[in-house]
Design goal:
single chain; 425 residues; alpha+beta; two-stranded antiparallel sheet; 23 helices; 11 strands; binds adenosine-5'-triphosphate; binds magnesium ion
Length: 425
């Protein structure tokens, strides 16, 4: 345990920890409790990155924490966690705890509250996540050498990797996530334990898997992350849909695509059909909005590679993808061209992108809402009640104006309707 202010790493001593966070720690300490910042925030500060959210570990029990603060949410009293709201921050404050035996590789049978921070740090997954810092007394508690591992850019389990991965099957995936997001090497014994404990991984809730997968994919090295997933056997368990023979192209596509989650998921599932991509993402409990965006991208992925001899074909593609979807579709196409390493294809995708922008600048009609006639007006011209026939007429008119935008005037559309015959009935 390091306890000498002189030994404090400069990144921590210089870190600007917000006044609100210090106030929480001070209030706990003034009431006679121990209180530390722990976990991801200290790791990120040591890496010279801004902390995302601050977690506090304390000797105080949840009821004591609740009494000390005005705005508190009882997030998980059974596990000793409450959320303290202070200014713009919501801070998880958790009683020092250890965990009883794990019953099913998912959750501990019991939680025991402890009085010292070192035992609390011992239950944490990796040495780099098992560092505590008291910024008021400027005291760093790092019993497992997390700071040294960060310096050496090593990801290592606290304790025996096989044991720790068998307790909670999510940890192997977290290992790969941290290694790829933070650009760390996984310590060989830690990495070797992953294939040995995949049975436990299979019991983890899909929501937890999804959260880690999303963080891995939206990090700076998604290709390295997915490659590690493959090497450790995790990829087959998470997404059996991804055929191993396509992996090298998939990795190159991932390396070439922008950060947004739907784009990265589409780059990952590019070789699948949109139905397969959709069911994979449903299994992982992705929100509907994400699933729809990815399924549409995968569905339309080949469009930018078809021949585009004329503006009408480009407008048809724009109508399919939608004004909001076209940028993503073109980004995916550009990444695919990069992955294939085909210079001519790269140029033609870039040209198509420019043409899309040019054509869009003329604000052509591309969707039903852009038509110069409303559904009611169409029904009046056809003397026909709203129904499938009107739907067919709308599709016909839309196809006509996408082909030739100059037709999009009420009089011209009426004219066309008069000579139109529905295909059915
Ligand atoms: P992020 O920057 O993504 O939030 P984090 O390290 O803060 O990363 P959290 O999931 O927020 O990750 O967890 C906070 C801390 O709780 C971790 O730093 C770690 O000490 C501990 N922890 C989280 N999940 C586990 C787990 N599955 N097993 C053991 N310890 C864990
Ligand atoms: Mg966190």
């Amino acid at each position: 345990v390091t306890n000498t202010p002189a030994a404090l790493p400069s990144r921590l001593s210089q870190a600007a920890i917000p006044e609100e966070i210090l106030r929480i720690l001070r209030r706990l300490k003034d009431a006679g409790h121990a209180a530390y910042l722990v976990g991801g925030s200290i790791r990120d500060l040591l890496l010279g990155k801004p902390a995302k959210d601050y977690d506090v570990a304390t000797s105080a029990h949840a009821e004591q924490v609740i009494r000390l603060f005005k705005r508190v949410i009882p997030t998980g009293i059974k596990h000793g966690t409450v959320t303290v709201l202070m200014g713009p921050f919501s801070v998880e404050v958790t009683t020092f705890r250890g965990e009883g035996a794990y019953i099913d590789g998912r959750r501990p049978e019991s939680v025991v509250f402890l009085d010292n921070v070192v035992d609390d740090l011992a239950r944490r997954d990796f040495t780099i996540n098992a560092i505590a810092f008291d910024p008021i007394e400027r005291k760093l508690v790092d019993p497992f050498g997390g700071e040294g591992d960060l310096d050496a850019r090593t990801l290592r389990c606290v304790g025996d990797p096989k044991e720790r991965f068998s307790e909670d099957g999510l940890r192997p995936l977290r290992a790969v996530r941290f290694a790829s997001v933070l650009d760390l090497q996984i310590d060989p014994p830690t990495q070797a334990a992953i294939p040995e404990t995949l049975g436990t991984f299979d019991r983890v809730a899909q929501e937890r898997v999804r959260e880690e997968l999303s963080k891995l994919l939206t990090g700076p090295h998604p290709d390295r992350g997915v490659s590690l997933l493959e090497q450790t056997g995790l990829l087959k368990r998470i997404l059996p849909e991804i055929a191993p023979e396509w992996l090298s192209f998939t990795l190159r596509r991932l390396a070439a695509i922008a950060t947004e989650l739907p784009l990265r998921l589409a780059a990952l599932l590019f070789e699948a059909s949109s139905a397969v991509a959709e069911s994979a993402l449903q299994r992982l409990r992705y929100p509907r909005k994400v699933i729809d965006a990815v399924a549409q991208l995968v569905e339309l992925k080949d469009l930018p590679f078809s021949r585009f001899p004329d503006d009408a074909s480009v407008r048809r593609m724009l109508a399919c993808a939608g004004r909001d979807g076209i940028d993503a579709l073109m980004a995916l196409a550009a990444a695919q061209a990069q992955a294939l390493g085909d210079q001519e294809l790269i140029r033609s995708v870039a040209n198509l992108r420019t043409r899309c922008a040019q054509i869009l600048s003329h604000a052509p009609p591309l969707s039903v809402g852009d038509l110069a006639l409303s559904g009611d007006q169409i029904a009046r011209v056809l003397r026909c009640p709203p129904g499938p026939r009107i739907g067919e007429a709308i599709r016909y008119l839309l196809a006509s104006v996408i082909e030739d935008p100059s037709l999009n005037r009420a009089d011209r559309l009426e004219e066309r309707l008069k000579s139109w015959r529905p295909t059915a009935g």
